[in-house]
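Researcher: Quick one. three chains, 278 residues in total.
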Amino acid sequence: MEELIIQINDDFNLNKISNSGQCFRWGECSHDTYRIIAGADCLYITVLDNECYKLECTEDKYNSFWREYFDLQENYQVIRKRIDQEKDHFLWEAAEYEKGIRILRQDPWETLITFIISQNRNIPGIRKSVELLAETCGEKRLDSRGLEYYTFPSPATVQSLSEKELSDCRLGYRCKYVHAAAQAVTAGDFDLNRLLYTDHTDAVAALTALSGVGVKVANCVSLFGLHHTDAFPIDVWMKRILAEHYPDGYPYERYTPYNGIYQQYMFAYYRHKEKRYI
DNA sequence: AGGCAGGCTTTTA
DNA sequence: TAAAAGCCTGCC
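Model:
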């Protein structure tokens, strides 16, 4: 088995990332090991001492895929230190508590489908549907420990599914949204990768043109799938946070271009305080 | 025109 | 039974 030890001298907490609600195919194997499925790849990662981690992959695979996936070229300590403890105590406290969250660089297509599925559902339900979709039409592979996993299916593969096959993934009324998105991407009517190079406002405008993609889901895709770190998803929890802690308006300008990263700290922290882990 | 009520699949707690 | 990282349609 290929193994690699890396040291990460920055905020990086697997448990925080896993619980942050941006990824739905992370599995906790033990208190210190996670199995991560992303796109067509699977990785076991184990926490060691002194900011060191053991990755069950080759150095080439780390350099070509996982390093970028974890967004390791970005310095989150620097981003976190921009918060003024006096001016914005709630955000400061949230960031201190949720230190270790990073915005993963997930695949745009996988992120789009995942967040269409996410609407009006809790996290266990989202995980289940994503897994069923992968099992239905993803590719079966073996991970580094010889266990099976399913890759996330391509747009063409999802587009080829029947109504019943999608329905059996427990997608409910979202079936037609998932199918339409797969259709648009497969036909070339919708160029997701182009949106990697626009700003988040343009990306949100393009994404909301898709049926079943509203402003909230579009901002999630922009943030988690296109890595537009200024995207700021507002769901029911963020509405509560804004009403409770920013009754006179939220200072977006102060935090550009990292509004989305700060949003993640607040979202996770607030849910933690409300004891809503799922 | 733009805001709002009601409906939607299914799971989870 | 209500709520869940919502969105669409139809009505006013």
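The first strand of chain A starts at residue 4 and ends at 7.
Researcher: Thanks, that's what I needed.
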